[in-house]
DNA sequence: TGACTATATGCCAGAAATGGCATAGCATGG
DNA sequence: CCATGCTATGCCATTTCTGGCATATAGTCA
């Protein structure tokens, strides 16, 4: 956003800022969220690469298709632990994990 | 263990194998555990580097000293999510996280 | 020795994540 | 059009994790 537009908006009573500011996220929160997002993308990518369905992956890691869907969609009820279990079930190594982050 | 000793043990009725086999861990489990362990080590290292006490780190990440102790000791009731929060609270970046894994 | 600081361990009520199920959406091919 | 295969979403009982507190242990210094 250029300074001009910003001025006009603020003159009209708008608060201008980033999403991060709006949500009161600090750097640690941001890193955490971005890491999680990167991991979910890695899961989807690896699963597709192996031509597995969500059901198949779910069986591998002894969970349900709905959980796998939520993992890949970045559902907030999914922990990093579960995402890692998915990645490793897909045969990822620690090195590959590190690259994905 | 050399083949000789193995034979002698088995002749005497012992089962010979790795810890991994004994605990029925597959490769995915192993990678997961090792990753978690690497992360806990990174937390301890970074905290020491910054000369923080467990209490100080606990305040940073809005948890308790006992949790921090458990993180660093690899307590099984600690999730990877919490470990990551600790690392990021210590100012680690995603890149540093990747290196730690 | 005793006081002090840091870390470790046990416990538990409350909070969050999980698996499982149902079902809805959405392509693609017949 | 309807099947069929795959993915998405909602719900909820059970399981797991968390924060907080108490207390124990270990190290250091006076």
What does this structure look like?
The structure is a homodimer of 101-residue chains. Chain A is mostly helical. Helix content of chain A is 68%, strand content 0%. Chain A has one domain (26-100): Orthogonal Bundle (434 Repressor (Amino-terminal Domain)). Chain A has helices spanning 3-11, 19-22, 27-49, 54-60, 65-73, 80-89, 94-100. In chain A, helix 4 (54-60) packs across helix 5 (65-73). The mean pLDDT of chain A is 88. At the A-B interface, helix 3, helix 6 and helix 7 of A face helix 3, helix 6 and helix 7 of B. The structure holds a DNA duplex (30 and 30 nucleotides).
Quick structural gist:
The structure is a homodimer of 101-residue chains. Chain A is an all-alpha fold and 101 residues long.
Write the CATH fold name of chain A.
434 Repressor (Amino-terminal Domain)
Unreliable runs of chain A: none
Q: Kindly, what is the distance between the CA atoms of the first and last residues of chain A, rounded to a whole number of angstroms?
A: 29 Å
Number of strands of chain A: 0
* Class by SSE composition of chain A: mainly alpha
Helix content of chain A: 55-70%
Q: For the record, what is the CATH homologous superfamily label of chain A?
A: lambda repressor-like DNA-binding domains
Chains forming the largest contact: A-B, 24 and 24 residues
Q: What would you report as the Rg of chain A, rounded to the nearest angstrom?
A: 19 Å
CATH architecture of chain A: Orthogonal Bundle
Helical stretch tally of chain A: 7
Compute the average pLDDT of chain A: 88
Report the portion of residues of chain A in β strands.
under 5%
Order of helices and strands of chain A: HHHHHHH
Number of domains of chain A: 1
Q: What's the CATH first level of chain A?
A: Mainly Alpha
């Amino acid at each position: 956003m250029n300074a001009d537009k910003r001025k006009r908006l603020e003159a009209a009573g708008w608060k201008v800022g980033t999403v991060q500011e709006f949500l009161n996220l600090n750097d640690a929160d941001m890193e955490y969220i971005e890491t999680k997002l990167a991991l979910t993308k890695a899961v989807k990518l690896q699963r597709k690469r192996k031509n597995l369905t969500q059901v198949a992956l779910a069986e591998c890691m002894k969970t349900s298709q709905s959980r796998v869907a939520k993992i890949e969609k970045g559902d907030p009820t999914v922990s990093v632990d579960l995402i890692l279990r998915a990645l490793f079930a897909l045969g990822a190594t620690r090195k590959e994990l590190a690259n994905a982050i």
